[in-house]
Amino acid sequence: MTKQVVGTDFSTASALEWAAEVLRGQLAEVLKLRAAAFNSADIEGVHKMRVAIRRLRSALRDFSPLLKKRPLKESKKDLKRLSDALGAARDEDVAIAALEKLRGKTKHESVKKAVEKMIEKRRAVREKAQAVLIETLESSEIEALRERFLRALDEAAEPGGKLKHLTAKEAGREVISNGRREFCDLSESLYNPFEIEKLHELRIAAKRLRYAVELFDVVWNGQIAPFAEEISQMQTFLGELHDADIWIEDLSRRLHKEKGKKHGADFRLLSGFVRQRTKHYRAALRLWGKWQKNNFIENLQTVLDNSPKSEKTSERQ
């Protein structure tokens, strides 16, 4: 979440200067979590650093109209490499946790044994992912990343161009409005439960919209925070649905590959993930129905637009 600078008037504050300040702060937050990510026994360390990088990369995307693109090109690659290393470890942590939960719930010994084998394989992959992550998190690598990013940001945030007079509120209105439109354009996929790729795109759109609302919430003095909370719920439902799709695909591939063998355990696991998928899909659909009834999406735009006419970019130019 973005912290407010005391005494800042966001109706007139320079969007460019504020963006640079926010990005420096988010980088510092990422680097602060480095030590925790080294400890593979605490899966929250990797998760928190990964989320911090997601927020930083999302902010870079949201602020891209304000910043010069070329200086930050290499830094974006640096962040992508670090995000990938964290993601590889995190994906295995999530998979292991899900399998351990299943093992605890099942009453069938055959299923338990099958799940235990899957857990062992995942742990072996997790160890390899941790080795790569430790190399990526070496102090010299992280320090080089920090220096490159800050140097590039200083260059990218140099005043100039047609957007140099844009205020923080004007920038926020544009970014969130675009994210809202993107989500709405993809929302029809909720009526097609088996359009897996489209639902995945909708999940990404929900995440981007949520991060944008949280990023600019300070500009609206907390008025749009409730919208972020609701969007977070949708993101969670779609995320759980996506995770179930990945498990279903994996189990389906295993069953196709090993035809003729006994697969009682895999059948039960596949059935369980299909039930979970249905549960999360229905939850997402119910929330979308609630949003439509309450004009949730339209109300977000109303709050964004509820500003004095003097703030409008069109009247400044």
Descriptive account of the structure:
This protein has 317 residues and is mostly helical. The protein has 2 domains: 13-165, CHAD domain; 167-317. It is 76% helix and 0% strand. The protein contains 12 helices and no strands. The protein has helices spanning 15-32, 34-38, 43-63, 73-105, 109-136, 139-156, 168-186, 196-216, 225-257, 264-294, 296-305, 313-316. α3 packs across α8, α7 (168-186) runs antiparallel to α11 and α8 packs antiparallel against α9. The protein is flat. Residues 308-317 have low confidence and may be disordered.
For this entry, give a set of tags.
317 residues; mainly alpha; disordered C terminus
Number of domains: 2
Write out the CATH superfamily name of the largest domain: CHAD domain
Overall average pLDDT: 89
Compute the number of strand runs.
0
What order do the helices and strands follow?
A: HHHHHHHHHHHH
Percent of residues in helical segments?
A: over 70%
Strand fraction equals: under 5%
- Biggest sheet descriptor: none
Distance between the termini: 31 Å
Helix-strand makeup class: mainly alpha
CATH class of the largest domain: Mainly Alpha
Q: What sort of overall outline do the alpha carbons produce when their principal axes are compared?
A: flat
Which fold name fills CATH's third level, the topology of the largest domain?
CHAD domain
Computed CA radius of gyration, to the nearest angstrom: 22 Å
Brief synopsis:
With 317 residues, the protein is an all-alpha fold.
Topology, element by element:
Elements: H1 15-32, H2 34-38, H3 43-63, H4 73-105, H5 109-136, H6 139-156, H7 168-186, H8 196-216, H9 225-257, H10 264-294, H11 296-305, H12 313-316
Helix pairs in contact: 1-3, 1-6, 1-7, 3-4, 3-8, 4-5, 4-6, 5-10, 7-8, 7-11, 8-9, 9-10
